[in-house]
Amino acid sequence: MKLITENIEEISVLTEESNGKKNLYIEGIFLQSEVQNRNGRIYPFAILEREVEKYQTKIKEGRALGELGHPENPGVNLHLASHKIVELRADGNNFYGKAKIMESTPQGKIAAALLGEGVKLGVSSRGVGTLEEKNGVKYVCDDFMLSTAADIVADPSAPDAFVNGIMEGVEWVWDNGMLKEHQIANMKKYISEADRAEREERQLKAFNAFMSKLSS
Question: 184, CA 20 to 30 Å: which among 88, 125, 177, 207?
């Protein structure tokens, strides 16, 4: 089996108040079925429905966590957790989710700062399984297992949005000396010089490089 990840670009940000405390959430479509995605894959509804039902136990027990960035393994690294998924339900062939940003964790603080600066973010699911190709389309097989319903990732439709957010608003980056101005300029150049097909890959590499500097 192989690691399978899928990005979804459109999520909403909302603030809810509870006991006088304001909490930050993201919500939107986290998973999609019965439609060919941009990776050329189709997830049968029955498979995602089964996995989402199993995932409810993690949600109820408060163990449905996600990371900030684009991990290359199926597990969740607790020291990189940025949010907790509190809702995941079917909505037609899609699965609607809601996640609370955990602003008490280091990565949660970063996510909140990026969102607060208007950086457009998306979500990425992770799972393991095999693929079967039919007529040029890759179908996710019945052995698929959902590991994380949503990580927070830089939105591929806005390749340098997160870099602009860092430059304009996240002042503690400069205070801690973690990222210098020329490094950000190099990131922007690295992304802007890519053609359309390669831009998303470069964006994710730059975002991961940024995240690794903050967590090192």
Answer: 125
